[in-house]
Amino acid sequence: MANDLYALEKLVEAVDALVAGTGRVRERLFAAAKFFIQIRQEDIPEGELRCLFADLKNTLTSGLAGADEASVAHTLRAKTAEEAAAIARLIFDLFRELDRLPQ
User: Of 77, 64, 69, 83, which Cα lies nearest the Cα of 36?
Assistant: First the structure.
């Protein structure tokens, strides 16, 4: 069963890290990812949003099993600032879409 409120709470924290955090985009994305990786696939409603979430989590962890801060850090070191910005935008898009759902 999806836990929309938990996922939304973690996405709010992730977006806050992206927007209000300090540092370059990769540093802010790493801070945001610490919240993002706490979300489980089951916390997102089935369908398009869950697919977007799964793709994002895979992108943030290079598909490594056991998504954690180390796998995110490894992945982000290989990303350009533009790639990191695109991932940040997708996190925001997921937040926006999940926030639009009736609670």
Answer: 69
pLDDT band at 63 (very low <50, low <70, confident <90, very high): low
Mean pLDDT of the 67-83 span: 87
**How many domains are contained in the chain?**
1
Q: 3-state DSSP call for residue 101? A: coil
Cα 39 to chain centroid, rounded: 8
Give residue 41's domain range: 4-100
CB 84 within 8 A of CB 25: yes
* Residue 49 DSSP label: H
Half-sphere exposure (Cβ direction) of 9: Cα atoms closer than 13 Å: 8
